[in-house]
Amino acid sequence: MAEVFTVGLIGCGVVGQGVARLIASEAEEIARKTGVKLELARVADKDPSQPRKAGVPDDRVTTDAAELIADPSLQAIVELVGGTGIAREFVLQAFKAGKDVVTANKALLAKHGREIYKTARDNGRCIAFEASCGGGIPLILPLRTGLVANRVTALYGILNGTCNYILSEMDQKGKSYAVALKEAQEAGYAELDPTLDVSGGDTAHKLAVLASLAFGADVDLAKLHVEGIDQLDAADLAAGRELGYVCKLLGIAQNGEDGLSLRVHPSFVHDRHPLAGTSGSFNAISVYGNWVGHTLYYGRGAGSKPTASAVVADLVDITRLHTADPDHRVPHLAFQPDALAATPILPMDEVVTAYYLRLRVADQTGVLSRITTILAEHDISIDAVLQRESAHGEGQTDLIILTHDTREGRMNQAIATMQALPTVLAPIVRIRKEELN
């Protein structure tokens, strides 16, 4: 007979309802695989009608999360409230009540991870968070165990399905950002207030968690460079496609000799790279290890079913840890707590990458020569140049320039010098170009 493992759930929205349904429908199958039967014994939600939608009996529902946390019959708590306020209190209280925790809350881990991991250790408990990054894609587990023999050198991730859907529509169908966003909202891929997604904030939260795991680093979220997609023009995506590149919002983590490069911004990637072919609301993450080389993780990055799948996988993992010596469990961040490094994060001016530039200039003799001279004076090498008729009237033309790798600080100086020319008629468009190796 399978051992029963009792679970309490706090927050029964879309994902919480998915967890409740999954446990109800798959408990027997999970027991066949693990010898443990998951039982959703209690659910707390401020709106008791929410658990009912997932078929949770009324006698298992409460509006008091503190009551649920204090219930001695529960062995683990699933936190799906979201945010970084009350969710933090629930998680800390659960540890102190002797319960392990599963969460999908990347913002909480990115902002308060140091405190949460320490409190878990101090109380001999564990926190599992596979669902926090990449939805249903198994990603945390490979970083914690599957790649343990490797030094991770770089990680590049399409980590937000909303942004990827919008960029796919702009790239493949030529839609404007505003039109693509509106359609994403109508399709349910984007919130009515999409700011966290399109600003790059959601991707930054996930990148902070993943970089901590990949590099054993104490990552300060405030030091990440973050840009969103709301200023992108479909004309630039089309030009990039013509040159063999596809635009994606990337979370980038690189471990170099001078420190970590951690940044979120739109990037052109070569159309032959697997990330370029990741369309719609899908996520994909490339991880490079010094022994394994390139590994790729792909799938649905959000949604009730994929995220519930990751939450329940974490619950199963926790059931297996209950018989393990707490001192010999896999550390929360893959590295031993006393081995986490205070690795410096490079300022953006020191980051080395390549660039796509679009300049709207006066259609006059000598303009291109002056532009290329300025780039040369800043030691910036040109990879390709296109000149095309501008859509903004006669007497203007668009110069599209691809550069080789250079330091961001040099590019900033060059752009400032070019922007000051009287023949440059509009703000210069810059999109970084990543070689992903």
Topology, please?
Elements lengths: L2 E8 L3 H21 L1 E9 L4 H5 L7 E2 L2 H6 L5 E4 L6 H11 L3 E4 L2 H17 L4 E2 L11 H7 L5 E7 L2 H13 L3 H10 L8 H4 L2 H15 L9 E2 L7 H9 L2 E12 L2 E12 L11 E8 L3 E8 L3 H18 L30 E11 L4 H11 L4 E8 L6 E8 L2 E2 H12 L9 E6 L3
Parallel strand pairs: 1-2, 1-4, 2-3, 4-5, 5-6, 8-10, 10-17
Antiparallel strand pairs: 7-9, 7-11, 9-10, 11-12, 13-15, 13-16, 13-17, 14-15
Question: Can you describe what's shown?
Answer:
The protein is of the alpha/beta class and 437 residues long. The chain has 3 domains: 3-128, 3-Layer(aba) Sandwich (Rossmann fold); 140-300, Dihydrodipicolinate Reductase, domain 2 (2-Layer Sandwich); 348-434, Alpha-Beta Plaits (2-Layer Sandwich), CATH 3.30.70. The chain is built from 14 helices and 17 strands. The strands form 2 sheets. Strands 7, 8, 9, 10, 11, 12, 13, 14, 15, 16 and 17 form an 11-stranded mixed sheet that branches. Strands 3-2-1-4-5-6 form a 6-stranded parallel sheet, with helices on both faces. Strand 2, helix 2 and strand 3 (61-62) form a beta-alpha-beta unit. Helix 1 packs across helix 12. The longest helix is centred in the first third of the chain and has 21 residues, at 14-34. The mean pLDDT is 92.
